[in-house]
Amino acid sequence: AQPDLVAELLKATVAAVDVPVSLKIRTGVDAQQINALAIARIAEDAGISLLSIHGRHRAQRYEGQAEYDTIAQVVDVVDIPVLANGDIDSPAKARSVLDHTGAAGIMIGRAALGRPWLFAQIKAALNGLPAPPTPQPHEILALLQKQLTAIYQHYGEQTGVRIARKHWKWYSKQLDIDDAAGFNRLQTASEQHQWLLACAENQITKPNR
Ligand SMILES: Cc1cc2nc3c(=O)[nH]c(=O)nc-3n(C[C@H](O)[C@H](O)[C@H](O)COP(=O)(O)O)c2cc1C
């Protein structure tokens, strides 16, 4: 870890732009070098406005489980808002991580892939409201179609069709569809669209959550 370099980079970034700058970090380099507290203080001094922390150190990659004690310690020592991140995949987990860390909010990555309704479910639960139900398969396919249309528009069809494949992989898990390669062979937006329609019509899908 090079704290002086971190300070230099953060100060330069904050000075270079007119918008608030947020920072995302892990808990440290490895189990012997948990430095989130030191980096958080440096970030705050450098003018960072919001700090997100993934509760794993770098050497862990995605192995093991995220820990939230370090995040709680950071929340105690800095005044800027801290977002807790790592392995949050349900309303109950969101509540427990917020309670444990005292964080200002949470950040969710993998659990929302192919499952964007998770945010509304967590938000409702945190507000003491009934969680909106998980969409039915035909609704999920319609949602994916809408998302893919936006992807084609944003990236153009050629790139969009390729980007669509990873989203299909994530959504198809939610739909419990075993389709290792079928969708990946499709070469146009129209073919992908037809594929989703066929899935809906064949009703080969069932919700698994
Ligand atoms: C597809 C994908 C892309 C990601 N890209 C970034 C990134 O650009 N910068 C970053 O700091 N973390 C990135 N991450 C890591 C996540 O922000 C997050 O810290 C990590 O996945 C742990 O949170 P989770 O358990 O909710 O997924 C990415 C994760 C995924 C799954």
Strand order of the largest sheet: 1-2-3-4
Q: Helical content, roughly? A: 40-55%
**Overall pLDDT, averaged?**
94
For the termini, the CA-CA separation is 41 Å
CATH architecture call of the largest domain: Alpha-Beta Barrel
Q: Which regions contain 5 or more consecutive residues with pLDDT less than 50?
A: 205-209
Beta-strand segment tally: 4
Binned strand content: 5-15%
Task: State the major sheet.
Answer: 4 strands, parallel
CATH class of the largest domain: Alpha Beta
Count of structural domains? 2
Notes on the protein architecture:
Helix 4 (91-101) links the parallel strand 3 (82-85) and strand 4. Helix 1 (3-16) packs parallel to helix 2. The chain folds into two domains: 3-114, TIM Barrel, CATH 3.20.20; 137-202. It has helices at residues 3-16, 36-46, 69-77, 91-101, 118-126, 137-155, 157-174, 189-202; strands at 22-26, 50-54, 82-85, 105-107. Helices cover 50% and strands 8% of the residues. Strands 1-2-3-4 form a four-stranded parallel beta sheet. The protein has 209 residues and is α/β, with parallel strands linked by helices. It contains eight helices and four strands. Bound molecules: flavin mononucleotide. Flavin mononucleotide (FMN) is lined by residues 24, 54, 85-88, 108-111.
